[in-house]
Amino acid sequence: MSGFSYTSRDGTVVILHHGRAATTLRGMRAAEFLAEVETDPQLVMARWTGNYKRGNERTARNHPRNQR
Q1: pLDDT band at 58 (very low <50, low <70, confident <90, very high)
Q2: Residue 40's CB: how many other CB atoms inside 10 A?
Q3: pTM for this structure?
Q4: What is the dihedral of CA 24, 48, 62, 56, to 10 degrees?
Q5: Residue 47 CB coordination number (10 Å)
Q6: Quick check: 25 and 36 in contact, CB under 8 A?
Q7: What is the pLDDT of residue 52?
Q8: What does the alpha-carbon distance between residue 66 and residue 23 come to, in Å, rounded to a whole number?
Q9: What is the pLDDT of residues 25-57, one digit of tens each?
Q10: Which long-range contacts (CB under 8 A, 24 or more apart) does 21-26 make?
Q11: What are the C-alpha distances in Å from 23 to residues 10, 28?
């Protein structure tokens, strides 16, 4: 498991997977994440993003909402 990174700013944490935002945490959840991420960062970030691979990535990538 690799490819995860995160940025923390003003009480908000954005978890990135291969440079794209996977999830955003705010408030208490962000604080919990920052306390936990010190143990094994890649595993923790994968767990906090949830089950993001469901086999429909190609369909989701082409959805108008995801076009930038």
Answers
A1: low
A2: 12
A3: 0.69
A4: -160
A5: 13
A6: no
A7: 52
A8: 14
A9: 999 999 999 999 998 898 889 889 885 555 556
A10: 22/49, 22/52, 23/48, 23/49, 23/50
A11: 16, 15
